[in-house]
């Protein structure tokens, strides 16, 4: 493919749609085969039943062959399974019936043996009693009746057995002997019941005869019969197990035959398909390498033959389509080169415009950011000024409250100082009163001492008065001590009051100084509040101006951003178009290279 094809004119960049459509229709009608598959390509297979009757298996489809193989295998396996099931079921039913009857015979034989033993026990107890006992006689009669009933039931059960050696032996060998023993036992038991009271020796002889001649032989025959029935039951069980083993063998044989049929059928199908699939694979490998000049040409009537004919049909249509594509790719390559040059020039102009718009947008954005920062700073300053104004107002109110509180405290200090002075004066009065009381106590003590002396002179007649005088003297001493303690306390109180008066005087001086300083601080705060109010007004004006400037800068920035977006969109579209043109150019080159690999029929 020539990569330096001459550029087409601007009229050739956008060809006429009508002429292009007509040209495409002519190329399709002249150079491309009809894409609808021929009805005769996939020739129908011979009917399945016809091929089966004629034994022409190669004319069958592959799926029919597989169906036939699976059908034969399932049929053989079904027949074998049905036969095995029928035989097994018959044998199992017969065995179960025989086992049930034999089990019943064994149980009834055990009952009959138990009845004989019960009869022996009843006769023995009757002889031991040696006197008339209607209850024991009834027991013996009941046992005899039960013996006859159980023996009749045993005969009925044996009648239900299958005809065979066991049934014949039971009926011809054991039953006559057991019947004779039972009749003799009934006879001897009846005689024993008639004579066991009057003739005890004869009763003992009859009991011994019954036990040795009839009961023991009858029990021996019953034991032999039970053993023979058990052996026959074991033989039945072994026969059933043998049948089940044969059933397993037959199932395995049927499964092996089915597997052999499947394997043989698969080998036959594989052998018949090897040649056709080999030819088809060889042709498909050649097609994969780009050789579209030969055909498969299979004559088989199965699916492989149909696939071969469809492959030939696809090769013919693909070859015509590729020829048409090769011509179109040559024309497309020339148009792509012309459009690519025009798009490159347009893309360069848009790139310059986009860069200019980006520079303007960046400058405007920086200006807007600066204005926003100034606005934020002004707002922050205004907020701080308002906070300072509020803090100053709070401080002013606090100072006023402080001044009021200080005046109140000063008044209260003066009142306290006056009260303490009064206490000081009263303590002086109290001290003089205490001195008077001390003098009175001293005089009382002297009087009590004189009274004691006089009572001592009076003798017995003055003893009572002496006791009263002693009490008065002790009371005077206690009064003197209390007066001394009160005097000491008053001295301490006077010292404390003096200190309090001095402290109050100092506090009054400090309170006066505090009032003066608070008044001066309040005046300073009012001046600061006036200055802050002026600053607040100026900050509000600055914020309003910055907000107006920010709005204007934002509108300018939005307009420039819109222009930048338009330029960016145009640049992206042209870049995408340029990329598409390059991709289309690469695609045309690749298509030409790919088409060059095929060997096409000219």
UniProtKB/TrEMBL annotation:
Residues 280-323 form the HAMP domain. It comes from Candidatus Anaerobiospirillum pullicola. InterPro entries: Chemotax_Me-accpt_rcpt (IPR004090), HAMP_dom (IPR003660), MCPsignal_dom (IPR004089). Its main location: membrane. Residues 328-564 form the Methyl-accepting transducer domain. It is found in: Membrane. GO terms for biological process: chemotaxis; signal transduction. Belongs to the methyl-accepting chemotaxis (MCP) protein family. Residues 1-36 are annotated as: Disordered. The chain crosses the membrane at residues 66-87, 246-267. One of its GO terms (cellular component) is membrane. This is Methyl-accepting chemotaxis protein. It comes from the Bacteria. The keyword Transmembrane applies. Residues 18-32 have a biased composition (Low complexity). GO terms for molecular function: transmembrane signaling receptor activity. Keywords: Membrane, Transducer, Transmembrane, Transmembrane helix.
């Amino acid at each position: 493919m020539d990569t330096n094809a001459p550029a087409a004119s601007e009229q050739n960049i956008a060809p006429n749609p009508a002429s292009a459509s007509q040209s495409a229709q002519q190329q399709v009608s002249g150079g491309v085969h009809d894409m609808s598959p021929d009805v005769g390509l996939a020739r129908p297979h011979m009917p399945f039943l016809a091929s089966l009757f004629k034994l022409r298996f190669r004319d069958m489809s592959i799926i029919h062959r597989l169906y036939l193989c699976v059908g034969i295998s399932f049929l053989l396996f079904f027949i074998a399974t049905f036969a095995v099931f029928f035989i097994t079921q018959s044998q199992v039913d017969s065995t179960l019936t025989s086992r049930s009857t034999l089990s019943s015979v064994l149980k009834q034989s055990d009952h009959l043996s138990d009845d004989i033993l019960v009869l022996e026990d009843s006769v023995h107890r009757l002889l031991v009693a040696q006197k008339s006992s209607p209850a024991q006689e009834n027991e013996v009669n009941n046992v005899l009746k039960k013996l006859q009933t159980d023996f009749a039931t045993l005969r009925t059960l044996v009648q239900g057995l299958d005809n065979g050696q066991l049934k014949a032996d039971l009926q011809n060998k054991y039953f006559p002997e057991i019947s004779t023993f039972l009749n003799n036992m009934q006879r001897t038991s009846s005689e024993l019941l008639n004579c066991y009271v009057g003739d005890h020796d004869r009763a003992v002889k009859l009991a011994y005869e019954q036990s040795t001649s009839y009961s023991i032989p009858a029990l021996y025959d019953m034991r032999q019969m039970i053993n023979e029935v058990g052996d026959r039951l074991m033989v039945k069980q072994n026969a059933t197990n043998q049948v089940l083993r044969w059933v397993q063998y037959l199932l395995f044989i049927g499964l092996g035959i089915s597997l052999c049929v499947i394997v043989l059928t698969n080998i036959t199908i594989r052998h018949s398909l090897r040649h056709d699939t080999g030819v088809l694979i060889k042709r498909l490998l050649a097609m994969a390498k780009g050789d579209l000049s030969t055909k498969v040409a299979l004559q088989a009537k199965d699916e492989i033959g149909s696939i071969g004919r469809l492959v030939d049909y696809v090769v013919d249509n693909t070859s015509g389509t590729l020829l048409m594509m090769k011509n179109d790719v040559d024309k497309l390559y020339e148009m792509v080169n012309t459009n690519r040059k025009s798009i490159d020039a347009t893309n360069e102009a848009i790139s310059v415009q986009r860069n200019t718009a980006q520079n303007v947008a960046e400058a405007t954005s920086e200006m807007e950011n600066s204005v926003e920062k100034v606005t934020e700073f002004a707002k922050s300053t205004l907020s701080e000024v308002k906070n300072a104004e509020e803090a100053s107002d709070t401080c002013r109110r606090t100072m006023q409250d402080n001044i009021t509180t200080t005046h109140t405290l000063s008044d209260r200090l003066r009142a306290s100082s006056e009260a303490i002075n009064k206490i000081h004066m009263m303590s002086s009065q109290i001290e003089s009163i205490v001195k008077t009381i001390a003098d009175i106590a001293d005089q009382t003590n002297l009087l009590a001492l004189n009274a004691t002396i006089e009572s001592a002179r009076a003798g017995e007649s003055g003893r009572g008065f002496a006791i009263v005088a002693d009490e008065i003297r002790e009371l005077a001493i206690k009064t003197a001590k209390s007066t001394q303690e009160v005097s000491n306390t008053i001295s301490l109180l006077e010292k404390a009051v003096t200190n309090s008066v001095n402290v109050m005087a100092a506090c009054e001086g400090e309170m006066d100084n505090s009032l003066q300083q608070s008044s001066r601080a309040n005046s300073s705060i009012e001046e600061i509040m006036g200055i802050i109010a002026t600053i607040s007004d100026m900050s509000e004006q600055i914020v309003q101006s910055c907000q107006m400037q920010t709005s204007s800068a934002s509108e300018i920035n939005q307009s420039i951003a819109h222009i930048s977006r338009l330029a960016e969109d145009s640049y992206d579209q042209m870049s995408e178009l340029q990329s598409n043109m390059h991709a289309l150019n690469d695609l045309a080159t690749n298509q030409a290279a790919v088409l060059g690999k095929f060997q096409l029929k000219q």
